[in-house]
Specification:
The protein is of the alpha/beta class. The protein has 12 helices and 13 strands. The radius of gyration is 22 Å and the shape is elongated.
């Protein structure tokens, strides 16, 4: 036997993060791990001695298959920032003491940018104390903003949901014989990958969105209002997609222009919401046009009923690839996806130094954003392969069946 491994999930959930968990669990057992432990609520749970034995789950093909189709984070999540090693060695001593007590040989963390910061710090501390525990990052984020990797598991399914939902919103918004405006707020703090997916709504059966605004470019409110007024005067209804993180010239988020209550997490991130509502209220007050604000909010994160099979497959594969790399002696690495063909679409996995990924944000290239704030065909072609195919939920009594973990 190889010894034991442990896995955790961190940050925002996705429709396919559990497919990565399934890939870790199944591959670890197949490669000889004696036990597979799961941290409840990530690294914070580990510090609280809150973990569960997942070994029996690994031995059930039926439950592994159900886990792959279950949205959100099966093990629970956290937004817990590890201190700098130089500031608090005691926290690291506690973590490694727990890992040694559990005979852990490999540590896997499924998450986004902040989670990769955790892998970086733990692997650095392991080198300081000459620990032989291997630390591997498994990529996850609907925001698609991890550096180096072509894309991240979770993004394809969220993009599929956004594009599909936008088509339905557009159909809804065009039924009246007078102009109405619908502003849809989509997640994306500093990177507009998710909002860009709204452009996929355009096709032979759909007019597509009328305007699209990403956080990579400054949002000019006056120009926005004049464009809305011009189109509305033609009698045309509009559907507009905006990123929650759009900012004006002075750096403020649009939602900050109105009265709001701020919540800031452990990593210093403000909770973003309200830009669509602010703009809808402004249009209604100044232009007298019926305007509706829609926040997709958490709906876009865990819509497993609209998951991309390509996304599920890649999520499972990166989990398995992380295990294989760790068992082969790699540590302080993150599994990344490399696209090798667009038509037909093909990808492979590689590993990359976590220090070049943690805390580095990948934004939409400016050359993929047009002068009128739309997106180019290059960006459409980049996204489209990631939303392909479906893996239907297992339906019981007309509803999808999920695998549930007791997180108490």
């Amino acid at each position: 036997m190889f010894g034991n491994v442990i896995v955790g999930q961190s940050g925002g959930p996705t429709a396919v993060i559990n497919a990565s968990l399934a890939g870790v669990i199944k591959t670890a057992r197949d490669r000889g791990a004696e036990k597979v432990y799961g941290m409840r609520h990530g690294i914070k749970g580990l510090l609280d001695h809150n973990y569960v034995d997942l070994s029996e789950l690994a031995d059930s093909d039926m439950e592994i298959d159900l886990l792959k189709r279950t949205p959100s984070s099966y093990l629970g999540s956290c937004r817990f920032k590890l201190p700098e090693i130089s500031d608090d060695r005691e926290t690291y001593e506690k973590i490694f003491k727990i890992l040694d007590e559990l005979n852990i040989k490999c540590f896997f963390y499924i998450g986004g940018n902040d989670s990769m910061d955790t892998i970086k710090k733990l692997s650095d501390y392991a080198l300081i104390i000459n620990s032989d525990i291997k630390f591997m990052g498994v990529p996850k984020t609907i925001d698609n903003d991890l550096a180096v990797t072509d894309h991240t598991p979770g993004y394809g399914s969220a993009a599929k949901f956004i594009a599909s939902t936008m088509k339905e919103i557009i159909r809804d918004g065009l039924v009246y014989d007078y102009p109405t405006i619908t502003i849809v707020e989509i997640m994306g703090r500093n990177a507009g990958w998710l909002t860009a997916a709204a452009a996929l709504s355009k096709g032979e059966d759909c007019e597509g969105v009328d305007m699209l605004f990403l956080p990579e470019k400054v949002f000019d409110i006056d120009h926005f209002m004049s464009r809305v007024k011009e189109q509305a005067e033609s009698g045309k209804s509009m559907v507009i997609a905006i990123s929650e993180g759009i900012r004006v010239m002075d750096g403020r988020y649009v939602f900050e222009l109105s009265d709001h209550v701020e919540f800031v997490d452990a990593f210093g991130h403000k909770q973003l919401a309200g830009s669509a509502k602010f703009l809808a209220n402004k249009i209604g007050a100044e232009l007298g046009i019926k305007t509706r604000a829609i926040e997709l909010s958490t709906l876009q994160r865990c819509a497993a009923h609209m998951a991309s099979r390509t996304d599920i497959t890649e999520a499972y594969n990166v989990g398995g690839a992380a295990v294989k790399a760790a068992f082969d002696g790699e540590s302080g690495k993150v599994v990344v996806i490399k696209r090798i063909s667009d038509d037909p679409y093909m990808s492979i996995t590689e590993t990359h130094d976590v220090h070049q990924i943690a805390n580095v944000e990948k934004k939409v290239p400016l050359e993929w954003i047009t002068e009128d704030d739309f997106v180019t065909d290059d960006l459409i072609h980049y996204i489209r392969p990631l939303i392909q195919a479906e893996l239907s939920p297992i339906m019981i009594n007309g509803l999808p069946r999920h695998l549930n973990c007791d997180l108490r």
